[in-house]
Design brief:
Blueprint lengths: L2 H45 L6 E5 L2 E5 L1 H58 L2
Antiparallel strand pairs: 1-2
Helix pairs in contact: 1-2
């Protein structure tokens, strides 16, 4: 494979890794937002009396829900979100490492390609 083709392939791979990294960052931000929202709900539940009325929005309808059930649902959601954050954090580390390796590869190929072009230009001008 020619240097030019290798450079093109490596550049495409680098761009794909960058896109994956960007998507993982967006997912992490969404999860952070969801975590904060659910932590706020959990704090609000702690302030309520045991006999307080709690309603859950299902479609266009508010449905009455027991406090214990609502608290349990929020705790499960928080567990899920925290586990997803750990998973996405691992992805972020993986994509960051891959990105750095691919970036180094692209720079190396670019340097080789530029050296080849300079050598061709200097032999062609003689």
């Amino acid at each position: 494979m020619s240097l030019e083709a290798r450079l093109e392939v490596a550049t495409r791979e680098f761009q794909k890794i960058q896109k994956d990294l960007s998507n993982a960052i967006e997912a992490r931000q969404r999860l952070d937002s969801q975590l904060q929202e659910n932590e706020i709900v959990q704090k609000e539940f702690n302030l309520l009396k045991d006999d307080a009325n709690i309603y859950k929005l299902i479609g266009p309808v508010l449905v009455k829900q027991e406090k214990t059930e609502a608290v349990s649902n929020v705790e499960k959601r928080l567990e899920y979100i925290r586990s997803e954050i750990k998973r996405v954090e691992a992805q972020l580390q993986d994509f960051t490492q891959k990105s750095e390796l691919k970036k180094t590869e692209v720079i190396k190929i670019q340097t080789e390609y530029q050296a080849k072009l300079q050598a061709e230009a200097s032999t062609g001008s003689k």
